[in-house]
Design brief:
About 35% of the residues lie in helices and about 15% in strands. It is of the alpha+beta class. Among the domains are: about 130 residues, Succinate dehydrogenase/fumarate reductase flavoprotein, catalytic domain (Flavocytochrome C3, Chain A, domain 1, Alpha-Beta Complex), CATH 3.90.700; about 100 residues, Fumarate reductase/succinate dehydrogenase flavoprotein-like, C-terminal domain (Methane Monooxygenase Hydroxylase, Chain G, domain 1, Up-down Bundle). A hairpin with a 5-residue loop joins β9 and β10.
Length: about 625
């Protein structure tokens, strides 16, 4: 990797630093880290790699994934195997998943979990010292490995230690604003961005670019991410570079987000891990009369409401699929059986205090700091936007339509279909990190890196940096962060848990108005929050349009996509909605059929395995 301080032939206002390297990894969460690790382990010189992130090293959204990571180890249930894991994933995805990608993840995960163990992952253990596993929603067996309720944090720490041991280079606080491509050759040339601390523009001249920049659920008014992450960078960068997007209409609303009216706006939507329900947590509404009519809420200390999941899913109860539980909570609140703050109660007080503190330490500590003792009192929860099943179209090893451009983790599409199985997000990041890293290493060993035209790269960089320079001097009418908040309100109102044609059309109209106003922004220099949000807004507008257009086109209800005007699932719609950018920049839509699962996975599907919730009672 080599550096050039500035190009002398550029005007001062568009001067930039150049970084010349082989593989640029954009995104420093688990997907990016595992890809970089695999590159080095497959023989790529660490000096030829750079991992960049918008935050400091290790401060990624991965750390907020608390409940666990899936893999059919069979610790408690030896009859479990990868084919049943794949079957559960396909059923949860309502058979819109790419079966090949599902098989890639589920086949690999037992070995990947053991590899992480070798690297020092601090899993919770059984009495025999085995990696412990717990129930997660809609899973036939206990296959979610975990480290208390801080699995993502522990995974990230484990991967960082491994990356540092391999001398993987990393750069903090870099915001990528554009992928630069050679359209004639159909390949990526590198990326442009800026240093968020100094404001200096940076050009990355790279043979291969990996997008591991996360998802897009922060585009919703109520979400489980921090406000400046998961803003759609990865899908938007790929789409603007000529790659296709798929399944954007499928946005998972996690059933249990914290309720801001109770705990403060800074906590609104933050996740209460599914592990609480996996360890036996129960959901109650605030309808005292219904509880009394049925003989009371039950055990001492339980909320004085109705355990309402008995009406929606008597067999799987609180551990039914996330979309089922989220819609049930939403209905309870809409029909007046929720709390004054618009939530319901999640209660695990029937478990011993020591059990809660051991299995759910972060949740116990968080709520204790907010004045709630989980061992005696329920917590208040409501659905929150949590995960985008859609993303960039990639092939079997993660490469997009653009030669040399790859996508991994939540940025890519295909694994999750219409709804993600809990515990599969972390699994996807590390499984495809291995696959994509190995594929890029093999590509480089073959010398198949293309012949980049540096003139095209520098010409495109100069134009883009000049545009950024003008934006930094703009003194328009609208605050980009305020427009971003409006966009969040639009998606929550019109493309949320429940959708219909009128609302989706109104959402597209509102988005068009936001686009118009977004051309007249008041923006500070590149070190300011307003400049970063101007970039975020540009990405968000494209991703939001993809969500709304995909949802409007899909005239059925399936998984996380629930249309009140089309409440049934239509077998004719067992197709993926694919979006691409045409020659004049307009978003176009097509559909493609879904492949069938392999014979081995079909056998597991035919066997009809299903979670038995009542083992937890």
């Amino acid at each position: 990797m080599s550096f050039q301080e500035r190009r002398d032939d550029q005007p001062r206002e568009t001067a930039y630093e150049t970084v010349d390297l082989g593989v640029l990894v954009i995104g420093a969460g688990a997907a990016g880290a595992r890809t970089a690790i695999e590159l080095v382990e497959q023989g790529v010189d660490p000096e030829d790699i750079l991992v960049i992130g918008k935050r400091t090293h290790g401060d990624a959204h991965t750390t907020w994934a608390r409940g666990g990571i899936n893999g059919a180890l069979g610790t408690h249930d030896p009859e479990d195997d990868w084919t049943i894991h794949a079957a559960d994933t396909l059923k949860e995805g309502h058979f819109l998943n790419d079966p090949e990608k599902v098989e890639t993840v589920t086949r690999r995960m037992p070995d990947v979990l053991r590899e992480l163990d070798d690297w020092g992952m601090p899993y919770s253990r059984t009495d025999d010292g085995e990696i412990d596993q717990r129930y997660f929603g809609a899973q036939s067996f206990r296959r979610t490995a975990f480290a208390g309720d801080h699995t993502g944090e522990s995974l990230m720490e484990t991967l960082i230690r491994r990356a540092r041991a391999l001398s993987v280079p990393y750069r903090d606080d870099v915001f990528v604003t554009r992928l630069l491509t050679d359209d004639a050759a159909g390949r990526v040339l590198g990326a442009a961005g800026f240093d968020m601390d100094t404001g200096e523009f940076v050009l990355f001249d790279a043979d291969v670019v990996v997008l591991a920049a996360g998802g897009h659920t922060s585009l919703y008014d109520r979400h489980s991410s921090r406000d400046d992450e998961n803003t759609g960078d990865g899908p938007a960068l790929a789409y603007q570079a000529g790659a296709r997007l798929m399944d954007m209409e499928f946005v998972q609303f996690h059933p249990t987000g914290m309720v801001g009216g109770r705990y403060g706006e800074e906590w609104d939507g933050r996740l209460v891990t599914e592990a609480v329900r996996g360890e036996g947590g129960r959901l109650f509404n605030a309808d005292v009369s219904a509880s009394e009519a049925s003989g009371g809420a039950g055990e001492q200390g339980s909320p004085a409401g109705e355990r309402f999941m008995e009406r929606y899913s008597p067999e799987q109860m609180e551990l039914d699929a996330r979309d089922v539980v989220a819609r049930a909570i939403d209905r309870e609140v809409r029909e007046g059986r929720g709390t004054d703050d618009g939530g319901v109660y999640l209660d695990i007080s029937h478990r011993d205090r020591d059990f809660i503190r051991e299995r759910l330490p972060r949740m116990y500590e968080r709520f204790a700091e907010l004045g709630v003792d989980m061992a005696t009192d329920p917590v208040e929860v409501a659905p929150t936007a949590h995960y985008g099943m859609g993303g960039v179209v990639v092939d079997a090893v993660g490469e997009t339509d653009v030669d040399g451009l790859y996508a991994v983790g939540e940025t890519m599409a295909g694994v999750h279909g219409a709804n993600r199985l809990g515990g599969n997000s972390l699994a996807e990041t590390v499984a495809f990190g291995v696959v994509t890293g190995a594929a890029i290493a093999a590509r480089r060993q073959r010398g198949a890196v293309g012949g980049a035209d540096s003139g095209v790269l520098y010409d495109r960089a100069a134009i883009h940096f000049a545009d950024l320079g003008r934006l930094a001097r703009s003194d328009g009418t609208y605050d980009p962060e305020a427009l971003f908040d409006e966009l969040r309100e639009v998606l929550w109102a019109h493309a949320g848990i429940r959708r219909d044609d009128r609302g989706l059309s109104a959402g597209l109209d509102a988005l068009a108005d936001l686009r118009t106003r977004a051309s007249d922004l008041a923006v500070g220099d590149p070190t300011t929050r307003s400049f970063a949000f101007a970039m975020n807004l540009g990405f968000a507008l494209d991703v939001a349009e993809g969500i709304l257009r995909g949802a409007a086109a899909r005239t059925e209800s399936r998984g996380a996509h629930a249309r009140t005007d089309y409440p049934e699932t239509d077998e004719e719609w067992r197709r993926n909605v694919v979006l691409h950018r045409d020659s004049v920049g307009a978003m176009r839509l097509t559909t493609t059929p879904v492949d069938e699962p392999s014979e081995a996975v079909q056998v597991a599907l035919d066997a009809g395995y299903e979670l038995d919730y009542h083992q937890l009672e």
